[in-house]
Design brief:
alpha/beta, 2-enoyl-CoA Hydratase, Chain A, domain 1, 8-stranded mixed β-sheet, globular
Length: 326
């Protein structure tokens, strides 16, 4: 059974990279389940858990013979599906669609990245993001495995939001499906004071502590200006790292990545909003220096990696995807 008290504490104190709409849906489901109290059995059935486990497995698709030696290599499809957490699957019951364990994801990615029988890596992403922990390191790891002749493609099938987009942006190319969304570049932390509720219930919490700022920002008292400023500084620092990396990975200006879409900038990466594939096309954010490189389905992306095109050979297709001149 999930430790709901731990999850509540996490929601209240954690720093989040998450797309707000999907985040609210998960939060609403969580609150509804809390209101109905604990259950003797888990919320997900064995069949649902098994389906999630299958979706989380790395899959391999053989590519056509490569080069003069006709070597057959694989496309390794690595899923990043569900809410993103550094360790454990504590929110699997809440999010329904599973959760991403970044420790496991890193291990699987490194195994695939070091395998010479892999000719291309495809990150299949359907995630609104999640906790901040280990996201930057995971994106840097993906970036470090880029090499000539072995493209790494991230596809939002159907969402790469916030922290998941940070990871996606580190790939050689970012693809979004026609019904997909990417973006939500931003960071937030929630402070929820329950002081009034405690007072109504006759509860008087009292911390015994040492360290002037040890318990600042706790939920049992209003947030003072000093604590708010400290939290804001931490959020700003993470946001600056987030946007600097996305700008570098995508070949865009930092000012463009951070620009408010309601401001005066001609080009923006959403200012915290997630954009649909159609919006990306209309805002000219598809292509070099944009939020994605192309709009395509999962199957079209696999076909392209395999070189199944009447106008190009397998070698040319893979060179194009790896960013080299054909």
């Amino acid at each position: 059974m999930p430790d709901y008290s731990r999850i509540i504490s996490l929601v209240q104190s954690g720093i989040w990279f998450v797309e707000p709409r999907r985040g609210r849906m998960i939060a609403d489901a969580f609150l509804m389940r809390l209101e109905h109290g604990r259950r003797a059995e888990p919320y997900l059935t064995d069949a649902e858990r098994e389906e999630n486990a299958i979706r989380a497995q790395v899959r391999r698709v053989p590519m056509p013979p490569q080069g003069k030696t006709n070597i057959i290599k694989d496309i390794a499809i690595i899923p990043l599906i569900g809410m993103v957490f550094p360790r454990g699957d504590m929110m699997e019951d809440m999010s329904g669609g599973g959760a991403v364990n970044l420790v496991r994801f890193q291990r699987e990615f490194q195994q695939v990245g070091n395998d010479e029988s892999v000719g291309a890596i495809l990150l299949e992403i359907d995630s609104p993001g999640g906790l901040v922990d280990m996201v930057q390191e995971t994106a840097a790891m993906v970036r470090s495995y880029r090499k000539s002749g072995r493209p790494i493609i991230a596809i939002a099938n159907t969402m790469a939001g916030s922290g998941a987009y940070w990871i996606a942006s580190a790939a050689d190319q970012v693809v979004v499906t026609p019904s997909g969304f990417v973006g939500s570049i931003g960071v937030f932390q929630l402070h929820q004071s329950v002081a009034g509720m405690c007072e109504d219930l006759g509860i008087v919490p009292e911390y015994i502590y040492e360290g002037a700022r040890k318990v600042e920002g706790n939920p049992f008292e209003p947030l003072d200006d000093i604590a708010r400023a400290a939290m804001q500084a931490e959020i700003r620092s993470i946001y600056e790292s987030f946007t600097a990396d996305v700008a570098a990975y995508r070949g865009a200006d930092v000012a463009t990545v951070r620009a408010d879409p309601e401001g005066t900038s001609e080009k923006t990466f959403g200012g915290g909003r997630a954009y649909s594939a159609g919006q990306l096309r209309g805002l000219k954010l598809v292509g070099k220096g944009g939020m994605v490189d192309r709009i395509a389905t999962m199957q079209e992306t696999i076909d392209r990696l395999m070189g199944r095109s009447a106008r190009t050979s397998t070698t040319k297709a893979r060179l194009a995807l790896s960013g080299r001149k054909v």
